[in-house]
Amino acid sequence: xxxxxQIPIIIVSLIGFATLLGWFIDQPTFKSFxxxxxxxxxxxxxxxxxxxxxxxxxxLQTQKVLTKQxxxxxxxxxxxxxxxxxxxxxxxxxxxxxxxGTHVTAKGTLFKWMFNYMVxxxxxxxxxxxxFYVASASYRAFRIRxxxxxxxLSSGIIIMIGRVPLGSYISSWFILYLLVxxxxxxxxxxxxxxxxxxxxxxxxxxxxxxxxSMMGWPLDQPAVFYLPYLQEWIYRYxxxxxxxxxxxxxxxxxxxxxxxxxxxxxxxxIGE
Amino acid sequence: MNxxxxxxxxxxxxxxxxxxxxxxxxxxxxxxxxxxxxxxxGKDSQQVYxxxxxxxxxxxxxxxxxxxxxxxxxxxxxxxxxLHHLFSLKKGHxxxxxxxxxxxxxxxxxxxxxxxxERFGLTYGEDYVMLGFRPGAEAVVKGIVSDLRKLYTIDAKxxxxxxxxxxEGINRFEDFDFLFSGSAGYPGTxxxxxxAADPTDxxxxxxxxxxxVNEMMPYVLGGxxxxxxxxxxxxxxxxxxxxxxxxxxxxxxxxxxxxxVIVLFIVLGNLGYFIERKRSKRHQGS
Amino acid sequence: MDIIGAWIAVxxxxxxxxxxYKDNPFYKIAEHLFVGVSAGxxxxxxxxxxxxxxxxxRLWPSKHYSDSSLWYSIYDMFGYVxxxxxxxxxxxxxxxxxxxxxxxLLLGAMMLISLYKPFSWMARWGIAYTVGxxxxxxxxxxxxxxxxxxxxxxxxxxxxxxxxxxSLTGDSYFNNFVILIGTVTGLLYFYFSKEQTGHFSKVTKxxxxxxxxxxxxxxxFAVMGRISLLIGRLLDLIKYSGSEFHHASIWVLMAMVLxxxxxxxxxxxxxx
Lengths: 272, 286, 272
Fold this sequence. Notes:
The structure holds three protein chains of three kinds. By secondary structure, chain A is an all-alpha fold. Chain A is 74% helix and 0% strand. By secondary structure, chain B is an alpha/beta fold. Chain B is 57% helix and 12% strand.
């Protein structure tokens, strides 16, 4: 139990306190250890953790092939891919002029070829798939069920249209006409009277048209309805306020959780 | 009118593969047949540009690349534009490149080859240096802040740091005049702000993916970051400011049309939803 | 090699995109290859950029190499087996000898030994070190920049200076007021220690509105980001459809469409 439980908790507390106090204590040896050596050890252990992950993957995929579980044929590709990468990393440089070590980044090596033509395209494509799903989700799931959802959708649409070059071609007057129509829908849903709706829409159109004619239909005036300016205001002010409150909340949460780890109250890393 | 309503309701139930195909075509066609829409630089991109313009002669600029192939379309144009801007000013700025992501090293090398080597014919070790990737996230940032030479004993090519001419006088983060972080996630801009720029007051700007922009805005508004290049539109705006059009500019046509189509999808989807809701209320009433 | 690489990249890209049609063997092959190659790539990269130069390079630096030393005879033995990792004369990365780095070597070795089930607890020590270090670093960084820094930046003038009352694109009293109200009400929404009823609920409702605007903006930016990734992939596919790559994109696309179409036809026949 001592090896499996108490020692890991002691390690977390010791290292956690040392790292935290390293910000405040100016003693050279201590500071040098915390800022330099402890940091290096963290990097080295992170590298070992990646090794652990890779070997674990090899172990699981091999078990799958040997026990002929469902889809074991595809596991052969996973193992082959891993072995190919290991061969490129440790056995075949491909460029004799490059030293071992720098071969992982130098041009003309098998490792770089693997990165350019296998790792890079696959990684990029996996992420690019999300573009399709976000479009599909917008169409099938994004519904204005209440005022909050309306706010969310409106700010999203304004940002999406206002941030792109095509958005600068949409005149403020078009937005004003759109608002008049939306206002008409709202009036109709409240009063359920076609006369009121018609009057509202007609008056709105007349007012907008008169104002536009008097001002000469400038593209970006009134500025508050010009999408690029409006999106910039939304993005810099109300959006930032919301983001800031989330950031402060999360920050306090992270601080609390970090202290819990350092004090040994939180022990999820040992499975408790 | 009824026909239109039935059409909208039918479209609301369409197989999502037709939506995928539409999005694919809507993005592909403008890439093959560009519209060349003009780009209007925003305030945040302008702030980054102005800050770089105002850097004093022979400034030491730390460029940190933390992005990979998946986010290359957004961040890479920013990095190449920034390098172009720094070198084209001919003020003798020195660029030091570090990477918090391993893929960032490949991306940075590509950018340096394209700009420093091919475009400007600059000399490695005198005008720019690639210090390279170190794993450890915030621990690396902390290491650079306290003692860069302990963390980087050799550069990415295996040359000892003391043998590189432009590394003279560079011992820690405060020896740099400006930091630019091209960041696609963790570790990235947030770690640079929290552990480097904020505690030391070395000015920094950043270019991030669109998804991260919201997280960064509080830092921008608070002055902890001097301007931000927000996603591909931000990269295109910076390309417009430096007068060198690249991939970001060519992608903006496709981006514009795709956004419009997605907004149209949202509107159509909601129209279908409201019509369905009204009909079901009417059925319930009767 | 570049042309072969281009064809492989195109195949892998289109294989992953084929998932949009439906799950199929092309996608499964690409997915498993991605997992295997990525794991191998990370293992190799981290070994050569971290373990070999920073750990082994500090335990057996070339500066202190000596033929007669027992410590370096162990190194020479390793060198007979793997001369690329242990080049003759020690590892020359500019480090001095730091035998204290035997600790991360021990912790790293324990992580790897944990692959064997009876010793799975051994990984806890290395994990405990990284958790402690991360907790100590985060606690300070997040509190300083995300909490204190953001609170400081929310203390902005709403009266008494020469700012305009309202500005769409610059600082103004109205905009500062929006930030102040949005941040405070957003934070109050996250205060769950008090029941959100009465006047308090009205205040938190305002907070929700600001948060919804923020989420809407996030949605807009997310769409923007995803479309950018898709643009990147399509630009690569367009590049590889050129004659210098023997129209790779076109041939591979045609082959996949034919094969998937044939398989869909066969499935329909079998079901019919």
